[in-house]
Amino acid sequence: MAIMKPVGMLTLFILCFLGSAQAQDKDTSKNKYRVWVNLFEEPYEVQGTLYQLNDSSLLVSHYKTFTEFIIDNNPTIELRVNNIDQIGARKKNRMFKAILLGGASGFVAGSLIGFSRGDDEDLTAEQKAIRGGITLGIPGALVGMLIGSVKVVIPIEGSLSNYRKQHAKLQQYSTH
Fold first, then answer.
1. According to the model, what pLDDT value does residue 62 have?
2. Cα–Cα distance between 4 and 115 in angstroms, integer?
3. 20 to 30 A from 7, CA-CA: which of 30, 116, 147, 175?
4. pTM above the 0.70 mark?
């Protein structure tokens, strides 16, 4: 029973940490997404922030911070629609949050299962809780990584009509 208190406190700490990490997701800027633009010609892929949509092109900023973006006089790359195969988008830090949530969930579940099995002649309930937490925490983090790595893929295929059809969808990933 002496270990139940530390395991309970650890569980409470992890849940509070995850709750505060979610609360910090209230970013009011429109720069919440990272995009991958696959091209038919070199450089074949451009990563960054979708800055602006134009009639027959789009602007992508390859800077990771707003300060880097402001300092440069020409911070964007113009990509012509007829050179774009597809555009992938994902929320920034989504993979990190998913790995953290999956690992923590697995650790908590494994700890509870290990502790509930009680003492035996080889291991105490506390040791089983730690072993179970590690055993399920690692696969939980891997599942989180798989879930967090999913991107929304928008096919353009070099077609101006496809680009116009997808304009509203692309606009939600743009900063302007």
1. 75
2. 8
3. 147
4. no
